[in-house]
Amino acid sequence: MMTFMKKWVLIPISILVFLGAVYWIIGKIQYRLNVMDIEEYEPVSTLHVPEHKPTHAKYPFIDVHNHQWIMPVQDLDKLVAEMDSLHMQVMVNLSGFRGKYLEMALNNVKENHPNRFAVFLNINFENLDDPGWPEEPLAMIESAVKNGVKGLKVYKSLGLTDKDNQGNRIAVDDARLDPIWTKCGELGIPVLIHSGEPSSFWKPKDKHNERWLELKQEPDRYRPSETFPPFEQIMEEQHNMFRKHPETKFIDAHLGWYGNDLEKLGKLLDEMPNVYTELGAVLAELGRQPRFARRWMITYQDRVMMGKDTYKKEEYYTYFRVLETDDEYFDYYRKRHAHWKMYGLDLPDSVLKKVYYKNALRVIPGLDKNLFPAD
């Protein structure tokens, strides 16, 4: 009798355990079916607030950070028509390169739209141990300026991947490069320099990294410590170089990668009056901290310039909206750069004019001031 009772009790318990396991598995499957990748999640906001969607800038502007990779053979008429629609009066092409390519780019500009483009040249810093350094690059810079070049652009490879003849990484503040920066100061041309990357590229690729999506989509942007120097080291090298050359004007690209720490960027600008900065590809940093960013932009209104980086006409609209309006909770134009929402800074007109064109007219020589208001 007892044996029968034990079997009778065990059967329902085993069934309950089985049913419980099935229920748990079904629940997990249902949950998984409702889960989507962050790249697919595109919620439509139900928020109703005033909206302004400008498609051209309130004032004419100079884009000091642009890349036109085929300028030697480019149809500049088409590009200028798009610039006119945006109210962009001057575009700075940082990808002028050198040699025959640079010569052809300058000729295209001179023959078609000489006052609408400024071309910067690029040099190869990995030649710094070769015979003819620094005399050859210095002569190249002088010749380029005589032919119409307005500045020097330094790519992020300096400090990250450029190596000398011994295979050592070339630091941004390497003394062998000093003649280059000195020459730019003597010629009165600015150096627009991109050093490093967003600091998140050095951090673990985990759920706490706010650039995780970008590192997933662009895995080659990750900067593991066994391959690259620390973010802080590259930045300090750049700042040392700025300090060593107070007579040279530097435009520190991308808010110097301190758009997420404007207080620190402000202290650097206070210390180094020869340094300016620009907004290329980092507008999202300002748009997520509108109150502090507005105060900061007003404080440093003489040191910041308009810049976009990769050219796409429709993406400028977000710049205009962040800088000019007081709109709330709207999308940035590239999800991997900002999964957060934007808020407008509603900058005063006097500040907008400086950011859009006045500061660039002071720093970049030879631009046509007649394209802009006289005030």
Summary, kept brief:
It is built from 13 helices and 8 strands.
Please report which band the strand proportion falls in: under 5%, 5-15%, 15-25%, 25-35%, 35-45% or over 45%: 5-15%
Number of strands: 8
Mean pLDDT score, rounded? 94
Helix count, per DSSP?
13
Distance between the termini: 106 Å
List SSEs in N-to-C order: HEHEHEHEHHEHHEHEHHEHH
Give the count of structural domains: 1
Outline type: globular
Q: Helicity level, as a percent range?
A: 40-55%
Tell me the CATH topology: TIM Barrel
| Low-confidence residue ranges | 1-10
Tell me the radius of gyration. Answer: 27 Å
| CATH architectural category | Alpha-Beta Barrel
The profile of the biggest β sheet is:
8 strands, parallel
Classification by helices and strands: alpha/beta
Give the class-level CATH name.
Alpha Beta
Strand arrangement within the widest β-sheet reads 1-2-3-4-5-6-7-8
